[in-house]
Design brief:
Elements lengths: L1 E8 L8 H9 L8 E7 L2 E7 L12 E5 L2 E11 L2 H10 L9 H12 L9 E9 L4 E6 L8 E5 L2 E5 L2 H5 L7 E3 H9 L13 E2 L4 E6 L2 E6 L12 H18 L7 E4 L4 H17 L5 E7 L17 H11 L2 E7 L1 H5 L1 H11 L7 H14 L4 E3 L4 H5 L8 H5 L4 H6 L9 H7 L1 H14 L9 H30 L4 E3 L5 H9 L2 H4 L7 H7 L5 H4 L12 H14 L3 H4 L4 H8 L8 H20 L2 E3 L1
Parallel strand pairs: 10-19, 14-15, 14-17, 15-16, 17-18
Antiparallel strand pairs: 1-3, 1-9, 2-3, 4-5, 5-6, 6-7, 7-12, 8-9, 8-11, 12-13
Length: 608
Amino acid sequence: MCGITGWASFDREPGADPTVIEAMTATMAKRGPDDSGTWTARHVALGHRRLSVIDLDGGAQPMVTVHNGQDIALTYSGEVYNHHDLRRELTSLGHTFRTRSDTEVVLRAYAQWGEGLADRLVGMYAFAIWDARAEKLVLVRDRLGVKPLFYTEVSAGVVFGSEPKALFAHPEITPRIDADGLREAYSLLFNTGPTVWSGVREVPPGVVATFDRNGYRERVYWQLEAPTHADDLDTSIEAIRELLNDAARGQLEADVERCSLLSGGIDSTVITAILADELRRTEGGKIRSYAVDYSDQAEKFTGDVLRTGHDTPFAAEAGEFIGTEHSTVVLDPRALLDLDHRRAVVECRDSPIGVGDMDTSLYLLFGRIRQHSTVALSGEAADEVFGGYPWFHKQEALGAQTFPWLLVVKDEAAMPINPDLAGVLRIPEFRDDTYAAAIAAVPQSESTDLMERRQREMQHLSMTRWLRQLLHRKDRLSMAQGLEVRVPYCDHRLVEYAFATPWTHKSHDGREKSLLRSVGKGIAPDSVLYRPKNHYPATHHPDYNRGLQDMARDALTADAVRALVDETQIKTCLDVAPDELPWGHRLRLERVVDLALFLDIHKPELTV
């Protein structure tokens, strides 16, 4: 896992002033604390920050090979889990290898198959290749968008990076936010492509992008499809079991310490059980597992629209049942309110929109884990893959013509926008237009069953939008602590099979995530398997609420903040007693505090 950046141009020589690529690379030091490198040639400069995970001595980057007398250079972030199979195939074709790294496999795979290498990769990755033979830059992003990749166009050229801050270190790029960016931030639709930053875009997941003298263009090499599913229920369960086992076990490879995130829910418990079994079988050891909790939860858990129970007892029971070395990281209000922690979170996120204490607690959890491990495996994406969210099961969401998560949290998650600005942004119209386009993109099978069609729409929206912001969150907060988080449920082979499986299979026991529950029987405790869906935990400590209200009052003293938010609605939240502050009110205060920090840290030009 690493941070990548670069600049290609046919009008200027990116390598003429090496301080530019060095500055861009330096912005991602936290993503790659172990090593740094740059490489320049005619028309291009590449940068790399390394977090060493596989072949600690031999995987330095940018990595270069010579093919037909011309350089092919690679700067690469991520993990390709089938690199051993690819290495054997490439060796049979005459390639020789200097290292054990998957980086070199990707480089030589491009030399052999060109842009077609993307179709052969299994993993999470974002990388850039400069091919001097054709004088072109090739950008590739993994199928689900686990690893980020941003770009913008400058002076007949392209600048790219793992994070927008790498782009802003380029002298031609100014951090600027316009009305389109504010729509992206405040609409909570999680579009892929446009970002909050004017002119900065994401390379979409499942895309190979190229830049040469003819300009920039993109080619989709993977997307969700809806083939006919012929397997019966029992066959489907066994196929899911095999695919999940293969994904989880294949992601254990590392030359550093590994662990799992064990929240006490079915998703992380099943993954942890598979990992623990594999380690016992192959290495004779135990896996470490980690959960997060808050100092007020053991005595007084407070439920809300997203949470129905206290996670910690379930996580501890799951750890004991599976046989892990389990730890619970307990955080108090002071740690969550610490201004340095919150600034670090907002800075690494490069966005004004987050989820407050839940972001800060995840950042602190990752920091604690990093003291012992460099790689963690997570249960992220199981809800999207197997239909776990409330919107898959509530008639209100199934019948509504809008993004389903907007109904679950209603307006509580939205930033209250200054009324004058709201008239410019026209968020409701933007949501309607975006929803119509999103539904039109959903692939459908030949089934005429209306429930099947609607559930396929729900799953597609969840996989291509809701999941994207969760993956961004996990990537930014983990990499800011120098921790690599792997997500076995995002294995594209598992995702493809589950997406094609009919809803009657996915809900065969009358509950959410039926297929995953069937796979988990016998390897996870029943108390976890039959537990209702619980979202990531949040604190409800009155001291935290009191401190948050104080921070929000301070935020409202900034002219730039008042120009963007509805002060009246925020002040309503400030007038509530701390021990009675509703979840929705608190989330609005979190948004305002984060917005103030974002504006102070990034100092963007606002052009609305």
